[in-house]
Write a structure and sequence with these properties.
Elements: E1 4-11, H1 16-21, E2 26-29, E3 33-40, H2 43-55, E4 60-65
Antiparallel strand pairs: 1-3, 1-4, 2-3
Length: about 70
């Protein structure tokens, strides 16, 4: 199985609680947004991750596949 890496960016800065909820992702916090980077096995896993973000009522601004090298 080939895992793919995706980044999901949402508005706002993630705090400690949110970071702990996504401890399976690499988290980058910027001044106005937060980006989660995760390896997913399939589209269903990606959708599940997006649903987790949406469950916190966060506004997703970008979802994209990270090119493999």
């Amino acid at each position: 199985m080939r895992w793919l890496t995706y980044e999901i960016t949402f508005v706002g800065r993630a705090g400690a609680v949110l970071c702990s909820a996504f401890d399976d992702c690499k988290i980058s916090i910027g001044p106005y947004s937060t980006t989660l980077r995760a390896e997913v096995a399939d589209p269903a896993a990606l959708y599940g991750l997006i649903e987790r973000v949406a469950g916190f009522r966060l506004q997703v601004t970008d979802v994209h596949l990270v090119p493999s090298h």
